[in-house]
Design a protein that fits this description.
mainly beta, 6-stranded mixed β-sheet, globular
Length: 117
């Protein structure tokens, strides 16, 4: 069973940057399309960005386009989310998982991102 561990969150002022990391155990990471998701207090979990298994294609939710960049290093079983120009509305717990919602791996603990105004 693949285990996911997110890290890199923290408290930052509006306009600042953070880089999130996602570490995945197991041998299948490199062939799986992956994504970042987030959940703000009182709201449902939402999709943020996705990256294809090869790393050559990515997709972003409209509300992060031009500000966030997703990347991955298959040799290290790692995925990243560079977040720039952060806004208070980006405050949430951020998670990584497979893109395919029909067979998510168990969710990790997530990493808290708090953006102050």
């Amino acid at each position: 069973q693949v285990q996911l561990a997110e890290s890199g969150g923290g408290l930052v002022q509006a306009g600042g940057s953070l880089r999130l990391s996602c570490a995945a155990s197991g041998r299948t990471f490199s062939i799986i399309d992956m994504g970042w998701f987030r959940q703000a207090p009182g709201k449902e979990r939402e999709y943020v960005a996705g990256i294809w298994s090869s790393g050559d294609r990515s997709h972003y939710a409209d509300f992060v386009k031009g500000r966030f960049t997703i990347s991955r290093d298959n040799a290290k079983n790692m995925m990243y989310l560079q977040m720039n120009s952060l806004k208070p509305e980006d405050t949430a717990v951020y998670y990584c998982n497979r893109l395919n919602p029909t067979n998510y791996w168990p969710w990790g603990q997530g990493t808290q991102v708090t953006v102050s105004s």
